[in-house]
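Structure, all two chains, one model.
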Amino acid sequence: MQNNVNITKNVAQYRQDFAIIANWVKFGTKVLDLGCGDGELLQFLQSSLEVKGYGVEKSDVNLLACIANGTNVIQMDLEDGLSGFEDQSFNTVILSQTLQAMHNTEEIVLEMLRVGQEVIVTFPNFGYWRNRMQIATGNMPVSKTLPYQWFDTPNVHLCTINDFDQFCKNHNIEILERRVITDGKEVNLMPNLLGSLAMYRLKSK
Amino acid sequence: MSENNAIGIVAPQTAHFNEPLKLKSGTVLTQFDLVYETYGTLNADKSNAVLICHALSGTHHVAGKYSEQDKYPGWWDNLVGPNKPLDTNKFFVIGVNNLGGCHGSSGPVSTNPATGKPWGSAFPIVTVEDWVNSQARLLDQLGITQLAAVIGGSLGGMQALQWTIAYPDRVRHALVIASAPNLTAQNMAFNEVARQAIITDPEFHGGDYYEHGVVPRRGLRIARMLGHITYLSDDAMGEKFGRKLKDNIKYSFDVEFEMESYLRYQGDKFAGEFDANTYLRMTRALDYYDPALAYGGDLSKTLSQTKAKFLVLSFTSDWRFSPARSREIVKALLDNESTVSYAEVTAAHGHDAFLMPDGHYHAILRSYLSNIEVGGNHAE
């Protein structure tokens, strides 16, 4: 179900999202993008940083799009883990706005840390004030980063920035860097309240 | 009349080779023939050649018909033709009958030049490696130094893989479909039963049945029936036949169920047109293929010298060449940082799916093949 997620992203934020990821990925390195959608991020990283990129994707439609645009894509379900990928075989493993749609959330993060020297995870911050407002007024949040109704959402594991910080602490994961953006702009003040998209660069401690 | 995306009328050709070919077994074929067909036009810089490797019962007759009256076209006609996924407006496609075959290439039914009689049991056991080496000879004769792509399903996929190992500079893309890096014990077990059915047929005569004027039809028929069971999934058989009866139950061992009718028909048809000695050799080639054996079982090391870009494809309901086996190939390629994509196509037809014109499957092949660059100066 993670495959739907990449399609309806806000374009401005998408670019900012990409720009930050591109900042975190080193030139000419090996990158694995989990839930790569139509391969747009990998194409961007390949053209800007000449990375050796592979995508993992479950959906037939996205797989076909990747093959059509020449992205290396491996069709598999992330819920099954990353068997087939050796320990520490990628410089960077990316999970872009897919974490919240995973069932085996804990397992995939640990698998990413096994396969990647560094890991990039981005997700919509459920603690964002607009989400809180909607909850306060009695409705499930619907927004640019959470564009689904409660009955058709693929998102099953929404979390806040505080929650994810705690998750990292509990799992002995080192947060190398955290960036938070709202409407394409960086948020430094009270990120868990004012940030709509959370971006983490992680590694195992 | 032909449809506008059909190849039309084709004719096979025969290439003769006088240079001896040393086989993996150590035996030397002093001379041999390969029968082949081509579709499309070889371009000026000879950069658009695609080789199709056939599976167990395939032939060089991949596409088109031999005459307007032909009931059926070649075995992969749904893939190959003008504007088809493997587009003959762009590519020069070659189908070849493998050594040991029974459709014109040197094999048990062909004449042994040393005796003037059919080779029969004397025809050597050939391997996937031998086939690829002989195919390379054919390319030499056609003046093709490098293939744009090599494509094969099942046993054909093994040949495609072998091409990238044996001739890394001669193949730019390999499409390995419904295949495996070797056979599992269970898979080889089916082959052994098939061979035993043939070998124990009283009319087998140690493989020299030609001189007795008979063929081990019963054995070949049973071998093929067994094969057909394994090429279909349980679901596909259920959907196709279920428990449907042919007629009212007769309490006999005649055909009672539709499924039996299908298997008998397929067995009879095959036994009437295929050679038992060839069947034995094709199944043995499947069994023996294990390129990682020379590398201590390390498939990653085995594929480390390959230079081709890969598309690996499997089908969800294929239990004879399961997706897990294709993923082994993918993993080894990832270990080598090869350029590879892998598609696991949802299909109900089991192993047979690779021959079916499934929309998504063909869309993947079409997309992949359309991205393959070939030189300009396309010959008219």
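The beta strands of chain A are 30-34, 52-57, 73-75, 90-96, 116-124, 173-182, 185-186, 197-204.
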